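Hi there. Long-time user, first ticket. I'm pasting a complex I've been working with (about 225 residues overall). I'd like to know whether the download I got is complete or cut off, because the file seemed smaller than I expected. Thanks.
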Amino acid sequence: RKEVEQDPGPFNVPEGATVAFNCTYSNSASQSFFWYRQDCRKEPKLLMSVYSSGNEDGRFTAQLNRASQYISLLIRDSKLSDSATYLCVVARSGYSTLTFGKGTMLLVSP
Amino acid sequence: GAVVSQHPSRVICKSGTSVKIECRSLDFQATTMFWYRQFPKKSLMLMATSNEGSKATYEQGVEKDKFLINHASLTLSTLTVTSAHPEDSSFYICSAIAGQNSPLHFGNGTRLTVT
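Hi, the file is complete. Here it is re-exported in full:
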């Protein structure tokens, strides 16, 4: 099993739709979790950190399930500008090991 | 918010030459910086972890003599691709953290093309 796995997609959704991505990780020692968004040929940009209690930022909600070892990202009311690749990042303590998922591509259409 | 500046954003060089890429944390001290490369339609691959004042830790399969990393200050790390070859053409990105368990902030990346 790969250390961090994501469905590559693409997820094709219409504007206004709600879409969710999951990211599974294999190492139970993982401590920090993040979602990044990357536009084509650009650097990744932090979307949100993922906290144990779950967290929300506007239309975006991130959750962590330690028992099942996955994190999720929910996007409500999708916008055209949400089209991008969403990377999950899993880190162990002090970033001793840092692993990126391959990313999930989201395409939002009018 | 925290900002990381990377320079140059794009470079084209001839095979056999060396290229230096700079990564600066602009408004915070970064004790640790990371260097990645990314091939088209692939995920980021960590190349090395750079700690200020000490030698970088390279990931398996990354040649330390080819990819020289220097982290001489808390705000600057450099990656030098020595004797570049066409297969080194890639998108190189740095990132930095302000403290343990802080999120990563990425530089804007450098697209290297070796002809």
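A couple of notes from our side: The radius of gyration of chain A is 13 Å. Chain A has a mean pLDDT of 90.
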